[in-house]
Amino acid sequence: MKNNKAMLYKDQIDKNRIPAHIAIIMDGNGRWAKQQGHARTFGHQAGAETVHVIAEEAARLGVKYLTLYTFSTENWNRPVDEVAALMSLLMDSIEEETFMKNNISFRIIGETEKLPENVLARLNKCIERTSKNTGMCLTLALSYSSKWEITEAVKKIAREVKEGILTPEEITDQTIDRCLATHYMPDPDLLIRTGGEIRLSNYLLWQCAYAELYFCDTFWPDFKAEELCKAICDFQKRERRFGKTSEQI
């Protein structure tokens, strides 16, 4: 009989308990590049390749939704040349073949009007081309922040109250859910952050109220399929009570 410790994590996963929605904060590209003696943009290129690896593995495992924190609202404050390189990389790294081959649909959330026109056009083309795919939904959070998203949801609800569509007493957490950019997906079951930092960085704050959190020191370019499987194995060892006792589960 095989020793569990010697088994690959992918062989230990319970395929009947795969998290439906995994959200990832892809951190550590710049620090990884620095360790290699390269510019930060080299790390972002390597990180883009990891996105394809993780998307394919997640789809293979049966994950229904994968949401990746790609570019935050705050990232616009980075050096101009790095932002320009990131935008160029974003446009070049969207490979529709990967989505079509794996039956993945593609979406984006965030203040997309801030994106360069050519980048947005490329992204929208991919969204349209993959819209009929029925497998995993891969969402990139671009020019995104949770505070922006919640603020926009509040504005929408306020307009509905002003127009008489809704009364303040009728507002529930479901009302907020339907007004968020993520209204088409369930809340994350598992949130992964790579790169050694232990914070949420303004990412899916409302949606992650009951998500299981997994932090690892691995920089994103080194976070390959087996690392994803390791995170899912860790998730499967946890008891999700949602405020109840163990006996009530």
UniProtKB/TrEMBL annotation:
An MF annotation (GO) of this entry: magnesium ion binding
Cofactor note: Binds 2 magnesium ions per subunit.
TM helices/strands, residue ranges: none
EC number annotated for this UniProt entry: 2.5.1.-
Enzyme class: transferase
Active site residues per record: D27, N75 (proton acceptor)
Lineage top rank: taxon: Bacteria
Residues that coordinate or bind Mg(2+): D27, E212
Keyword Protease found: no
Binding of substrate, residues: 28-32, 40, 44, 72-74, 76, 78, 193, 199-201
GO biological process: polyprenol biosynthetic process
Assembly with partners or alone: Homodimer.
Task performed by this protein: Catalyzes the condensation of isopentenyl diphosphate (IPP) with allylic pyrophosphates generating different type of terpenoids.
Family: Belongs to the UPP synthase family.
HAMAP family: ISPT
Protein name: Isoprenyl transferase
Taxonomic placement: Bacteria, Pseudomonadati, Bacteroidota, Bacteroidia, Bacteroidales
